[in-house]
Amino acid sequence: MEESIKTKIEDLLKSNKVFLFMKGTPEQPQCGFSAGVVSVLKQLNIPFGSFNVLSDMGIREGIKEFTNWPTIPQLYVNGEFIGGHDITVQMANSGELQKKIS
User: Fold this and answer.
1) Overall domain count for the chain
2) pLDDT digits over 43-52, tens only?
3) What residues contact residue 2 under an 8 Å CB cut-off, 6+ apart?
4) In what helix (H) or strand (E) does residue 52 lie, and over which residues does it extend?
5) Sequence-distant (≥ 6) Cβ neighbours of residue 53 within 8 angstroms
6) Which structural domain range is residue 67 located in?
């Protein structure tokens, strides 16, 4: 991965305690899984930053390499990779996500 892409990803992660790499925007998700994670975060009133990977191919591919996780969306808390849609939903249902964020 290019160093500039890695630095950009790290800077994005530092910009918010909770950060989501997704397809589309929170207002207009471009895939069901991204929409699902946005919905969970909004239901729990968790403020978050986001980045639309469809707007930047370098970030779109770089984030997969950054975490060694092949799919998007990707949720982070305090710069730590949490997971994608299914993991986020499971953690929210168990209360684990809320504990991690508080």
Assistant:
1) 1
2) 999 999 999 9
3) 58, 62
4) strand 49-52
5) 21, 22, 23, 59, 60, 63, 72
6) 3-101
Mean pLDDT score, 39-58 = 97
1 pLDDT exceeds 90? no
Cis check for the bond before 29: say yes or no (omega within 30 of 0): no
Give the CATH number of the domain where residue 57 resides: 3.40.30.10
Q: Which pair of tokens denotes residue 29?
A: 């998700």
Whether pLDDT at 93 is above 90: yes
The residues near 72 (Cβ < 8 Å, ≥ 6 apart) are 21, 22, 23, 31, 33, 34, 53, 60, 63, 64, 84
Other C-beta atoms closer than 10 Å to the C-beta of 19 total: 22
71 in Cβ contact with 84 (< 8 Å): yes
